[in-house]
Design brief:
The protein is mainly beta. The chain has a single domain, classed as Maltoporin, Chain A (Beta Barrel), CATH 2.40.170. The chain contains 13 helices and 36 strands. The strands form five sheets. The protein has a 22-stranded antiparallel beta barrel. Strands 1-6-7-4-5 form a five-stranded mixed β-sheet. A two-stranded antiparallel sheet has the order 2-3. A hairpin with a 5-residue loop joins strand 15 and strand 16.
């Protein structure tokens, strides 16, 4: 990456020059001091007063960690949130999914300052063993949001489609941006894994400026870089090749392929601003920009000619012993008829009836085989602009608009289009994806005073217009070309086929919605709320209506009961409806198999049995208790049960050569596919569990000690499966691949002057996965994080810490196919498989 060297020098200079930086981290604030804005439109509610359970995560707890990726920092402190690290999983290697309550990533609505955050252009198409829990989802990319821009993060653990619309089945994550009008905070951080790889650099700053006498402009910037990690072993075939040609000629020094984190470099910018216009009016805006480059890899392609090693199938049409088969004379004649030389595409063999065998001559460029290097350049921007105010008679109003775009440009190097023979390039641009969104909102709140009630009836109502646009841009011609020997070797760039002009297109979807949300205190001890929302999607002629009823009873000052009943929905995205992708997966024998995913309305999908998609629908119940034992001690316990019907599945079918499905694929320009997929409403699930939180803060004379304990129990059951949709392995993974039990225990200390720090224990319960016909069982693990921060002055401080201090790993991988492919640890691990990580951080505040 071109800016890597310069950026590292800057990072090193910052660490040495600041040598001890950082603003003193404030102690955690009691929950009664925090006013939440998520899940309620009543002003002044604290987390323990709301009708639904809400976690409030301070920005400091997100920033003071070894990881720079919000995807990881969220899961480190909130046990109801999970993520996984998937190497060799196409775009999912770079844009990692986040699960709330073990539901799909796009079943959680993400807001920024209360405005809907746009989706990534990536539709997660990975098949086993790479994260079947997230298969098919198109969600928000948390990795593009810098933690230094966040004031706090509110997690609504309750269905909220009646309040916010599509996607809020599992809950809502609302990112509240910093809004200080003065001050400069700078951070420089460096760290690496105990194994000596995976170096990370982070440079970040936040600047607050006044806008006139009554306004502010807050700006955050962050540069990050992260090197690759490698935790696998050498594949047997790669080791055999290395013994003949030398390890230096085999990818990754003889390993063949790499299991680990990708290479990442990115810039992220956020701003937040507002100006008080007087007369109870305010204009506001916030926005973001990100530019990130990521690089990972694919499966190893073995060369031809090594005894006992089967070559990559697209490089040689061979018999069971690996010997090349004669090329049909018709193919040789066709090459000659095009005025081409067969020697540029096949290998001459006087013993063959046609004079040639089906061995692509370009194999000589890779004497030790090759590993396609897959990367993505991600560009992302968003903006929200609005004006709000209050009438003299109490009506509050807010008119806003938003726009956003996420674009992914794929790149593939060290690969070939085997159908082009010796004329194939070694680098491709397989195509671009783009997700664009536009929205307009009009929101109103009126506190209606009714005699006899303990508080005004808070009536919120409004309307929303949204438009989503999904675009597929074609790749360069060589990435999708059907070469003279394409019928033998396959179509397009090996590993990730490019999108042809026939696959490209712009797909739009508008939606219109209106809602009403009412909340009031009927008495001093009884609060009641109700909401309803109607939403229409003209593109597939669907109208949804969702409702929510909530209540909270507080018979004693220190004790309260709360509960909700609600319905929810998630509309299929234009990306899910229209995506077309051809990539490579592995079968149960370890062979590489071309896999195509096709739009629901395509000829291929119709032949395979696809039906039009409809929204997923949910029914959600929560019930909980709140104990406010003292001003500094609170405990909450909440039960939830979420039924989701008609969940969208990625249906995959094996293609038999010569079958009607195979003929349809050939006619559509996709010969040689071993598997084909499409989206379908395929199954129903029930997710139920219990969340427990306990927070206690004590003044110990020489500082403040805070104990924060959180536990999440979650169990998912697949209730119904539509015939032909998902198989037994997918069902098993949905029910078992994420741990049922997660705990996070944090003990933090702040002297108020010089010293602060924390110790955090993360427990991941047992989990299982079902891959390639084998069930793997993996035990629970405790991971310990530690950080100590010393303040040299009021402006400067230095921190040192480690994540996974005791260098714990998940149990060994036991699957025979995955171990053959070089995986030594389970790729389904909820905490990765990289081991311990140490870091140092310098901070300054002015």
């Amino acid at each position: 990456m071109q800016t890597r060297t310069k950026a590292r020098l800057l990072a090193g200079a910052a660490v040495v020059g600041l040598s001890a930086l950082a603003a003193p981290a404030g102690a955690q604030t009691g929950s009664d001091d925090i006013i939440v804005v998520t899940g309620t439109r009543v002003e002044g509610k604290s987390p323990t007063e709301t009708l639904s359970p809400i976690d409030v995560l301070p920005g400091d707890s997100l920033a003071d960690q070894g990881s720079f990726d919000l995807t990881d920092t969220l899961t480190n402190i909130a046990p109801s949130i999970n993520t996984q690290r998937f190497p060799i999983a196409d775009g999912t290697s770079f844009i990692r999914p986040v699960n709330l309550r073990n539901l799909a990533p796009d079943q959680t609505l993400v807001l920024v300052n209360g405005a809907r955050r746009h989706r990534s252009a990536l539709v997660n198409l990975q098949v086993e063993p790479f994260g079947t829990v997230n298969q098919g989802a198109q969600a928000v990319d948390f990795g593009l949001i810098p933690s230094i821009a966040i004031k706090r993060l509110e997690v609504l653990r309750d269905g909220a489609s009646a309040q916010y619309g599509s996607d809020a089945i599992a809950g809502v994550i609302n990112i509240i941006l910093r809004d200080n009008a003065e001050g400069l905070d700078l951070t420089a951080q460096y760290g690496q894994y105990y194994e000596g790889d995976g170096e990370r650099f982070r440079l970040a700053g936040n600047l607050g400026l006044p806008l006139g006498e009554n306004g502010f402009f807050n700006f955050s910037a962050e540069y990050v870089s992260s090197d690759i990690t490698s935790r696998g072993s050498a594949r047997p075939d790669a080791a055999a090749v290395a013994a003949v040609v030398g390890a230096e000629n085999v990818p990754f020094d003889g390993l063949g392929q790499r299991w680990g984190d990708p290479d990442i470099e990115g810039f992220r910018l956020f701003f937040n601003s507002g100006i008080d216009l007087g007369d109870n009016k305010e204009i506001y805006a916030h926005g973001s920009y990100a530019d990130q480059e990521t690089v990972s890899g694919f499966f190893y392609r073995a060369p031809f000619g090594i005894p006992g090693v089967a070559p990559r199938a697209t490089l040689c049409v061979c018999d069971a012993s690996g010997n090349p088969l004669p090329t049909p004379q018709s193919i040789v004649d066709d090459i000659i008829a095009q005025g081409l030389d067969p020697n540029d595409f096949l290998t001459a063999d006087a013993g063959s009836p046609s004079g040639f065998v089906s061995l692509n001559p370009i194999h000589t460029l890779f004497p030790g085989g090759y590993n396609p290097t897959f990367g993505a350049d991600i560009q992302d921007y968003a903006g929200v602009f609005g004006v709000r105010g209050e009438k003299d008679w109490g009506l509050q109003w807010d008119i806003s608009g938003r726009f956003a775009e996420n674009q992914i440009q794929y790149v593939l190097i060290n690969s070939i289009n085997p159908g082009l023979g010796i004329n194939s390039p070694l680098e491709f641009r397989p195509g671009d994806l783009a997700q664009r969104e536009l929205g307009v909102n009009a929101d109103f709140v009126y506190p209606w005073v009714v005699d006899g009630l303990a508080s005004p009836v808070n009536i919120a109502f409004g309307a929303e217009y949204r438009r989503e646009v999904y675009e597929i841009k074609p790749g360069d011609p060589d990435s999708f070309a059907f070469g003279p020997t394409g019928i033998l070797f396959g179509v397009g760039s090996d590993g990730f086929q490019g999108d042809s002009p026939d696959a490209a297109g712009i797909f739009r979807r508008p939606s219109y919605a209106g809602y009403v949300d009412v909340e009031t205190d009927l008495t001093e001890w009884l609060t009641f709320g109700a909401a309803g929302r109607i939403e229409n999607f003209p593109d597939f002629d669907e109208t949804t209506f969702d409702w929510k009823v909530s209540a909270r009873v507080q018979p004693m000052p220190w004790f309260a009961l709360r509960g909700t009943v609600n319905t929810g929905f998630r509309a299929p995205t234009p990306g899910q409806i229209n995506t077309l992708d051809v990539t490579t997966t592995s079968d149960a024998m370890g062979n590489l198999v071309p896999l195509g995913t096709f739009p629901v309305n395509s000829v291929v999908a119709q032949v395979l049995g696809a039906q039009p998609l409809t929204p997923e629908e949910s029914f959600n119940i929560t019930a909980g208790v709140v104990f406010t034992l003292t001003d500094n001690i609170s405990v909450t316990v909440d039960y939830y049960n979420i039924d989701v019907d008609d969940r969208i599945a990625l249906v995959t079918q094996t293609i038999t050569p010569g079958s009607p499905e195979d003929m349809a694929l050939i006619a559509a320009g996709f010969p040689g596919l071993g598997q084909a997929s499409f989206f379908q409403n395929g199954f129903d699930t029930t997710v139920e569990g219990v969340d427990v939180t306990a927070v206690a803060t004590f003044d110990v004379g020489v500082g403040t000690v805070t104990f924060d304990a959180r536990h999440s129990y979650n169990e998912q059951t697949v209730d119904r499966v539509l015939a032909g949709s998902i198989d037994a392995e997918r069902v098993f993974d949905l029910e078992n691949q994420l741990p049922n039990h997660r705990s996070v225990l944090t003990l933090s200390y702040d002297s108020g002057d010089r010293l602060s720090g924390f110790v955090r224990a993360n427990r991941y319960g047992e989990w299982q996965d079902f891959t390639f016909g084998e069930i793997g069982e993996f035990g629970s693990e405790w991971l310990i994080d530690l950080e100590v921060k010393f303040r040299l002055t009021e402006q400067f401080a230095f921190a040192a810490g480690a994540e996974n201090v005791f260098d714990n790993f998940p149990d060994d991988e036991t699957n025979s196919v995955l171990t053959f492919l070089g995986a030594t640890r389970p790729v389904s691990s909820p905490f990765g498989f990289n081991g311990g990580f140490w870091y140092v951080r310098a901070e300054a505040s002015f």
